[in-house]
Specification:
Blueprint: E1 4-8, H1 13-24, E2 28-33, E3 58-62, H2 68-78, E4 82-85, H3 92-97, H4 99-124, E5 129-135, H5 157-176, E6 179-185, E7 188-189, H6 198-210, E8 217-219, E9 225-226, E10 229-230, H7 231-243, E11 249-252, E12 258-259, H8 260-270, E13 279-281, H9 299-305, H10 313-336, H11 345-348
Parallel strand pairs: 1-2, 1-4, 2-3, 4-5, 5-6, 6-11, 7-10, 8-13
Antiparallel strand pairs: 9-12
Helix pairs in contact: 1-7, 2-4, 4-5, 6-8, 6-10, 8-10
Bound molecules: NADP nicotinamide-adenine-dinucleotide phosphate (NAP) and guanosine-5'-diphosphate-alpha-D-mannose.
The site of NADP nicotinamide-adenine-dinucleotide phosphate has 25 residues, from helix 1 and strand 5.
Length: 354
């Protein structure tokens, strides 16, 4: 019998890669999805099969991190070996617009899930291993390089909520002996990255600009530095942490930082374009408090988990751009055939800018 995993945030970037990774390991994956008025399962549709068929390896359950009753019910129904808590309002800029909701999902949502897990483990008598999706945003203003011993100094409601979630997880490990690991992951990107995060916003725009579908790209702070890795590499570490003998916390990063400006330059250069002709600064994309520089020291993960990132910065930019050039070509072909392709403009324009 393969193991069963339960994933919150299964429809997100990481949830989709983790599901593929766990399937390859023989797991049956159960995911919690939110009810939406339109389909929100695009990233996992290629993995989904009709549940009436035999041998189905992905099952979805309605639930929400703001709904403790549903979390408890799903935990009991699935009775998992491993739980991966990836669900979050994960956009830092948006967390300044909706701080209370962000804290409810990210901080209290984690507490709800841990508390449901604690009761489930007591009642079932079965050990369950739990992964908590922590973030380099928790380091915030702490100078790089950041590692497991760096003191947290969050700079946004999102970052502060992740710090609370981190300490809830540590407390449940120490108080109730639960097998709980915190992964402190630095930024990780992919062609599946949401289009309001800066890397994907850039590669999506470069794809469209190079095919004449748009002319300008509006960005905020180009000086911020991030340690960008590939999401497909990073989900492996979530699983590796849960296979260790003892639960612990790990920083996951490439150890290499680049500015947003460098990302812009490289993406435009890959497409043979001069970024200065297309990029404009819009101050609404600036954050009330910025995280200036993140660069992780993942030597503990390398030593204990034997993990190394495979995809470097240049390859990451190339991979994302290739995907978004293909998307733009498809859009141009459809436009040429008289179909108008929606590009999510209303969502991009919401709030004070993302
Ligand atoms: P993402 O693409 O934004 O996905 C977030 C997921 O959470 C989606 O499936 C979303 O569902 C779900 N979600 C949102 N609100 C929820 C709620 N109230 N209840 C249940 N689920 C909810 O994020 P990601 O990049 O995959 O990141 C995964 C996790 O790692 C997040 O916790 C994020 O904060 C953390 N993290 C990410 C990075 C990074 O660089 N990617 C780095 C460090 C930590 P919908 O699809 O319905 O919106
Ligand atoms: N989103 C966005 N949009 N960011 C911009 C823009 C813009 O137009 N212009 C400049 N930036 C800058 C931001 O100010 C920030 O310094 C940097 O680009 C990266 O922004 P995001 O891509 O939105 O990511 P993030 O670093 O704030 O947060 C991501 O990484 C965290 C890990 O450090 C998210 O995935 C979080 O969920 C994750 O925890």
């Amino acid at each position: 019998m393969g193991k069963r995993a339960l994933i919150t945030g299964v429809t997100g970037q990481d949830g989709s890669y983790l599901t593929e990774f766990l399937h390859a390991k023989g797991y049956e994956v159960h995911g919690i999805i939110r009810r939406a008025s339109l389909f929100n399962t695009e990233r996992i549709d290629h993995l989904y099969r009709d549940p009436h068929l035999a041998g189905v390896k992905l099952r979805l359950h309605y639930g929400d991190l703001t709904d403790g009753t549903a979390l408890r019910r799903v935990l009991e129904a699935v009775d998992p070996d491993e739980v991966y808590n990836l669900g979050a309002q994960s956009h830092v800029r948006v967390s300044f617009d909706i701080p209370e909701y962000t804290a409810d999902v990210v901080a209290v949502g984690t507490l709800r899930l841990l508390d449901a897990l604690r009761d489930h483990v007591t009642q079932s008598g079965r050990p369950v291993r739990y992964y908590q999706a922590g973030s380099s945003e928790m380091f915030g203003a702490a100078p790089p390089p950041q590692n497991e011993r760096t003191v947290f100094y969050p700079r946004s409601p999102y970052g502060a909520s992740k710090v609370a979630a981190h300490w809830f997880a540590v407390n449940y490990r120490e108080a109730y002996g639960l097998f709980v690991c915190n992964g402190i992951l630095f930024n990780h990107e992919s062609p599946r990255r949401g289009e309001t995060f800066v890397t994907r916003k850039i590669t999506r725009a470069v794809g469209r600009i190079s095919l004449g579908l748009q002319d300008k790209l509006y960005l905020g702070n180009l000086d911020a530095k991030r340690d960008w890795g590939f999401a497909g590499d990073y989900v492996e570490t979530m699983w590796l942490m849960l296979q260790e003998e003892h639960p612990d916390d790990y920083v996951i990063a490439t150890g290499e930082a680049h500015s947003v400006r460098e990302f812009v330059e490289r993406a435009f250069a890959e497409a043979g374009l001069d970024w200065r002709r297309h990029v404009e600064i819009d101050s609404s994309y600036f954050r009330p408090t910025e995280v200036d520089s993140l660069c992780g020291d993942a030597s503990k993960a390398q030593r204990v988990l034997g993990w190394q990132p495979r995809v470097g910065f240049a390859e990451l930019v190339r991979m994302m751009l290739k995907h978004d050039l293909d998307l733009a070509r498809r859009e141009r072909t459809l436009n040429g055939a008289g179909f108008e392709v929606p590009v999510g403009g209303a969502a991009l324009a919401a709030g004070s800018g993302t």
